[in-house]
C-alpha cells in the first residue's frame, strides 16, 4: 500500500481503487482515502462502491507492514474479491469533524506547557492529557486563547523532513505516546504557521478558521502530574 491519499490531501473524499488482498481482518486496496486508526484519531467509516454491490466499511485499521491499510467490512457485508474495481468513499461529515477536532488539539498543545501523555479524538469531543503539576490551568483562559488562534486563520500544512533533521530538533516532539509515520528516512510534520510544528500523521483542516468555535468542556485531575483537558465544538 503506497497510495495513501489522506497523507497529501485530507480533503480527498473518494478514489478509484482495486482490491489487492482480502483476509479475516478486512480488505486492502491499491489506493485509499480511508485513514486508519492512529495517533488518537479514529479510523474512517464509509463504503466501497462496486458493480457487484456496495461493501459498507465499519472501521479502518493499520496492518503490520508499514503503510498497510485494512478496511474492515460491516457485519453481514458481501464477500469481496481480489481484483475487483471499487470506488472508496469515506463518510465525509464524520471525517471533517474529526479533522476540526484534531487541528484544535494541536492548538491546545501549543497553549498548555508540559509533555502530552495521551489523547483521543471523537465525533463529539476530544481530549489531551498533559504531564503538568499545576492546578492553575484556567478553563476560560485556555478557551479564549484557543478561539483567538482559530480566529487568527493560521494556514495548516503537512510537510516532510528527514529523520536526521528531526533528531537534531527534539523539541518538535511534544507527544510521547504517539509515533508519527517515519521510515524511508523521512517524517511527516504538521505545520500550523506561527503556532505549532510537530510530527503528526493525522488529517487536519487547511486553516484554523475552519475549526469554528471551540469550547473547553472540562479540566480533570488524573493524578498528581496529569491534567486532562476535554474540548468540544460549538454547535
Ligand atoms: Zn495532527
Could you list the spans in which at least 5 consecutive residues all have pLDDT below 50? none
Overall average pLDDT: 91
In one word, what is the shape? globular
* Bound ligands, each once: zinc ion
Strand order of the largest sheet: 2-1-6-3-4-5
- What is the helix content? 10-25%
Structural account:
- With 235 residues, this protein is an alpha+beta fold.
- Helix content is 18%, strand content 36%.
- A six-stranded antiparallel β-sheet has the order 2-1-6-3-4-5, with no helix packed on it. The protein has a four-stranded antiparallel β-sheet with strand order 7-8-13-12, covered by helices on one side.
- A hairpin with a 2-residue loop joins strand 1 (14-23) and strand 2.
- Helix 2 (92-111) packs across helix 3.
- The longest helix is centred in the middle third of the chain and has 20 residues, at 92-111.
- The mean pLDDT is 91.
- Bound molecules: zinc ion.
- The site of zinc ion has 6 residues, from helix 2.
- Zinc ion binds at residues 102, 106, 190, 200, 202, 204.
Keywords:
alpha+beta; globular; 13 strands; 235 residues; six-stranded antiparallel beta sheet; 18% helix; four-stranded antiparallel beta sheet; binds zinc ion
